[in-house]
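Thread: "does anyone have the structure for this chain?"

Original post by V.I.:
We have the sequence but no experimental structure in hand. Need at least a predicted one for the grant figures.
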Amino acid sequence: MAEHDFDVVVIGAGPGGYVCAIRCAQLGLKTACVEKRSALGGTCLNIGCIPSKALLQSSELYEQANGHLGHHGVKVAGVELDLPTMMKRKDKVVDTLTKGIAGLFKKNKVTHLSGSGRIVDANTVEVDGKSHSTANIVIATGSDSATLPGIEIDEKRIVSSTGALDLPEVPKRMVVIGGGIIGLELGSVWRRLGSEVTVVEYLDRIAPGIDNEAAKELQKLLKRQGMTFRLGSKVTDVKTLKKELKIYVEPAAGGDPETIACDVVLMSVGRKAHTEGLGLAEAGVATDDRGRVEIDDHFATSVPGVYAIGDCVRGAMLAHKAEDEGMAVAETIAGQSGHVNYDVIPGVVYTEPEAASVGKTEEELQEAGVDYVIGKFPMLANSRARTYDQTGGLVKVLADAKTDRVLGVHILGTSAGELIAEAAVAMEFGASSEDIARTCHAHPTFSEAVREAALAVDKRAIHF
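Reply from O.Q.:
Generated one for you, tokens below.
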């Protein structure tokens, strides 16, 4: 490796890329990380996970102060929304964390190459015209927002998640096209701040990918909060008029079209791999029909010495999945045995309540013909949820009917994103529902609902 400038060059400094670069450096590899943004952290830290969670928290506090505290004996009057200050706080959170990554690069002696990276060949990466030789290349370029044919995102009135995180004022009416994680989360933000939010989803359910029962219950709770849903509906066009936007919608199964008027459209129909401009075809790196880099089970591409991870390859587009892959590929390059257990990667929808899942859903188990047992426990019966006035939701544990091994856990409720970690650890070590049921949980906590659901697998829940 000594004949090259670097042992590893990572292209992209998002969660997958920067974690990969740091882990490579920890393993003694001379490492560089290429990033075209002025700040490190990729989509997640700059215009995705982190700013959206900051606004979710701020908007939740605003909503509480604006009418939900009276029955707690907390009287608040004259509550006003200061949107510029809310946005400024969000930006400060982002700035602090992105600068933190720069500090980690410095600590671990990772070279930051600022600019757009392009693969010339298996051992050369060009950054804004300057060539750098390397023994290994890791592609971690992430993904971009997708849109519908014929509808152009201007980030002003027709916005992606990027524009939705930086609107200058609260729109009176917002239409969210797509009922997935991004649409539900950012729709929740603007609904709490006063917008009339309508979600239009092509499928007959929201939050595809999570347990269907949990998704239906989540929709009920969000509807109760004021969100409107048009499911099984296809958006055919968006017309930009002088004072408003007109969204043309027709039933996915066929039928009479209708129009919905609004002030802002949030396009959240998914994301697409960002692989353009990397020189992949010229370098011989194969991609699939969706533009994703093709890899084997060890993250290797069609070109020896070139690897790929994260949103630009197959699998769930999740920051933590990319991080795990980043560590695994670093260890593989260093001669160790990097591994990712794709059966135990949690997913979270950060609405209120949150929806979190790990492992298989009932639908997946049914399709695979697996015999399973269900244990369910409602948050309504959890004492901590009662004290918080957060009684919506449930915990569902799916266990193998013969071995009792936990196959999937689905949680809808406050702090579900934190609670799911217990289930992930249990599944990583092959735990049974009995193992969770016999583990002492502190009282009163939301986590007791997980134990009760595990007890319910054997029909012996105590508090319901």
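V.I.: this helps a lot. The domain at 6-144+272-340 is CATH 3.50.50.60 (FAD/NAD(P)-binding domain).
O.Q.: and The chain has three domains: 6-144+272-340, 158-269, 346-457.
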